[in-house]
User: Fold these one by one.
Assistant:
Number 1:
Amino acid sequence: MSFIIIENVTKAYQPNGAASRTTVLRGVSTEIEEGEFVALMGPSGSGKTTLLTIIGAMSQPTDGRVIIDEVDVYGLSEERRADFRREYLGFVFQQHHLLPYLTALENVMLPLVITKLNTKEKRMKAQMALERVGLGDKLDRLPNQLSGGEQGRVAIARALVNEPPLILADEPTGNLDSRTGEELINLLRSLNEQGQTILMVTHNPEAAAATHRVLKIQDGLLMSDSAEAGRREARPMMEEVCAD
Ligand SMILES: Nc1ncnc2c1ncn2[C@@H]1O[C@H](COP(=O)(O)OP(=O)(O)OP(=O)(O)O)[C@@H](O)[C@H]1O
Ligand SMILES: [Mg+2]
């Protein structure tokens, strides 16, 4: 059984005061295996974030099912779904959403609030996560004392501090220059090599090329390129240039 099964998911929004509902997802089905690094692409407004929040147990689909590790996510009570989210999922958002008045270390400690660890253990774990993303020497910086790429890495450290089996990233390189974005993608790739399953929304074809496979969303439906291309080897965003 696949790690993630998305079964005929539909989503219709009815904005406040609107007379009619807008259907964004029209029956999306796909499966993702444990250990995959998958890109999700599609035009602006096509429903990528909507699908990510549905997979992320944050937004109930109008119809259909999401099964993660054999758990029917929306079959759970709200409380158990919140527990499931904390245990299984790490999120990286485009704007990174770091709290400006907390240091890098404190931002990364946030997801550990609900754990039974004591403060010293939480600090240790957060420090290890920041070391993994190469920021072991900037633990006490505030977000505005970090570059955009470094803030992105703090957001990734925060997503992985709980060691969740699945990381969902929504345009993590959206507001970064191409070089810094590339570093962030390569970081995600190395986390994937260490076992994390990653689903990443991106508009950048080069970032998508660093993943195993691309899902394309259009007109509320998903089209996978895997039929033609198959699962390929994830590779660094920039190949080393060899001097001869
Ligand atoms: N809470 C909401 N209420 C009503 N409509 C919404 C809501 N959230 C999203 N939508 C609409 O659903 C559609 C899909 O939005 P979504 O944010 O999923 O797109 P996206 O593919 O992530 O786009 P982008 O690439 O610009 O981030 C859009 O038309 C948007 O206006
Ligand atoms: Mg979006």
Number 2:
Amino acid sequence: MWKVTIDREKCSNCGACLESCPGDVYEEVNGKITAVNQDECHGCHTCEAVCPEDACFIEEE
Ligand code: SF4
Ligand code: SF4
């Protein structure tokens, strides 16, 4: 299992994580990119790699 976290202080809401995630983890909720479907994460680290603000990160649980 992977836990996906977005640091709201850093996130610019650019959408890069949502566009790049192959697991459909991210969705826009009330105008903010949110890691809604964490069960879909398979730990590829793509979102971390593409995030321009170092705002999203994943941890194994
Ligand atoms: S690690 Fe991969 S599957 Fe998990 S949220 Fe990031 S881009 Fe999506
Ligand atoms: S890629 Fe980073 S800055 Fe852009 S919406 Fe995702 S978490 Fe926020």
